[in-house]
Design brief:
The protein is about 70% helix and about 0% strand. It has about 70 residues and is mostly helical. It has one domain (about 5-55).
Length: about 70
């Protein structure tokens, strides 16, 4: 699995978990979805992604987006 795949899967997991928590407990959990979306937008412009840096430290091999 490449770094790109790991980041996209992690973002999707965060979104799905926050939607489940919002449905089960409180709509305030949707702020986590908003944060994930905002982070994806800023990463598309700047190329900086905190999750990508974390996965790099764990030794996940680079893909083409987050070299």
């Amino acid at each position: 699995m490449t770094l790109d795949q790991s980041v996209i899967r992690f973002a999707g997991l965060v979104v799905l978990i926050s939607l489940g928590l919002a449905y089960a407990f409180s709509p305030y959990w949707l702020w986590l979805t908003a944060f994930a979306g905002a982070n994806m937008i800023q990463a598309s412009f700047t190329g900086f992604c905190p999750a990508a840096n974390l996965f790099k430290r764990f030794g996940v091999k680079a893909g083409c987006a987050f070299d």
